[in-house]
């Protein structure tokens, strides 16, 4: 049975318990709780909206978003400015409703035994029986390249190959004694129209200032890889209730970056929104297989 990131929130809660009380049975219980159907045989898809902040265009959109007026790619319809988000507003949004499968999620021990570097790319293709030059191979290579790009000023980034590694990264960012909360997009009612449709803003249920956060985005790879990054700056985390034109109901996670002065001019959000770096906030919605960590104190 498919699960949303409510189950991942539970995973991180139980993982925290395991670290605190040393219960060796906890992780086994987590694996049982998070079972779901392996409903896809393809590599994990990723929207690359995380290429925030100056790493250049994402690999999938490098040609389609090079023009500042090109809005044809539906995957780019996730950006907005905070001043334009109002109750009753109708906006087109790309919302793929994706889920991880157990075959994609490796334990830390399993993941640590597999090389994860561009240098090992030819060997990795052989390991996973992927043909050189195939779409899967190109996606893998792009993921490895992106994971090895140096972070921009003030940013800390890490490509985690297991959920345990995601958890360890968040502890390094927030501190070992800081309680954190996990937020994610939840589809309350599945859409039957497709990935892109008009959504009405029903309610902005949470508006949380959070200078420090960790955002994690899934990457295309034979198993689950999470691009997690953090940059201390003025951010706002919004939870927005949306209603699609087909009746789809979404509790949508979005992050607003209030300072974009360090971002690359090539970032696709500027073309979509028609603004320049540093002149406006840039917000974006998260698909259901991405998530954000914020200090628990920020929500109080």
String of helices and strands: HHEEHHHEHEEEEEEEHEE
Number of helices: 7
Structural class assignment: alpha+beta
Radius of gyration from CA coordinates: 19 Å
Could you report the average pLDDT, rounded to the nearest whole number?
Answer: 78
Shape: globular
Number of strands: 12
Spans where pLDDT lies below 50 across 5 or more residues? 1-7, 13-71
Biased composition (Basic and acidic residues): 43-61
Keywords: Signal
Domain BURP: 79-296
Pfam families: BURP
Structure description:
This protein has seven helices and twelve strands. The strands form two sheets. Strands 1, 2, 5, 6, 9, 10 and 11 form a seven-stranded antiparallel sheet that branches. The longest helix has 17 residues. Helix 1 runs antiparallel to helix 2. The N terminus is likely disordered. It is globular. It is an alpha+beta fold and 300 residues long. 23% of the residues lie in helices and 26% in strands.
List the topology elements.
Blueprint: H1 5-21, H2 26-33, E1 79-80, E2 90-94, H3 108-112, H4 121-127, H5 135-148, E3 155-160, H6 163-174, E4 180-184, E5 186-189, E6 196-209, E7 214-219, E8 225-231, E9 235-244, E10 249-257, H7 268-273, E11 282-285, E12 291-295
Antiparallel strand pairs: 1-11, 2-6, 3-8, 4-12, 5-10, 6-9, 7-8, 7-12, 9-10, 10-11
Helix pairs in contact: 1-2
Q: Descriptors for this entry?
A:
300 residues; 7 helices; BURP_dom; globular; BURP domain-containing protein; disordered N terminus; alpha+beta; 23% helix; BURP; 12 strands; five-stranded antiparallel sheet; seven-stranded antiparallel sheet
């Amino acid at each position: 049975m498919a699960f949303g990131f409510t189950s991942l929130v539970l995973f991180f809660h139980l993982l925290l318990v395991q670290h605190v009380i040393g219960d060796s049975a906890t992780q086994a219980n987590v694996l049982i709780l998070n079972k779901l159907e392996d409903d896809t045989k393809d590599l994990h898809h990723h929207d690359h909206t995380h290429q925030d902040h100056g790493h250049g265009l994402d690999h999938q959109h490098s040609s389609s978003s090079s023009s500042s007026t090109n809005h044809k790619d539906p995957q780019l319809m996730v950006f907005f400015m905070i001043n334009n988000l109002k109750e009753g507003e109708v906006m087109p949004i790309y919302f793929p409703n994706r889920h991880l499968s157990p075959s994609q999620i490796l334990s830390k021990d399993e993941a640590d035994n597999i090389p994860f570097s561009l240098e090992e790319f030819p060997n990795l293709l052989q390991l996973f029986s992927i043909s050189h030059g195939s779409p899967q191979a190109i996606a893998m290579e792009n993921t490895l390249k992106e994971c090895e790009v140096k972070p921009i000023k003030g940013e800390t980034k890490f490509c985690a190959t297991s959920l345990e590694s995601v958890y360890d990264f968040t502890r390094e960012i927030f501190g070992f004694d800081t309680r954190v909360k996990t937020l994610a997009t939840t589809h309350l009612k599945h859409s039957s129209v497709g990935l892109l449709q008009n959504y009405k803003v029903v309610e902005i249920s949470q508006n949380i200032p959070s200078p420090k956060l960790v955002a994690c985005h899934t990457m295309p790879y034979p198993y689950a890889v999470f691009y997690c990054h953090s940059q201390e700056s003025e951010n706002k985390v919004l939870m927005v209730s949306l209603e699609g034109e087909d009746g789809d109901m979404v509790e949508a996670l979005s992050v607003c970056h209030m300072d974009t002065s360090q971002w690359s001019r090539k970032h696709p959000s500027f073309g979509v929104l028609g603004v320049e770096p540093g002149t406006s906030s840039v917000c974006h919605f998260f698909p259901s297989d991405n998530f954000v960590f914020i200090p628990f104190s920020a929500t109080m």
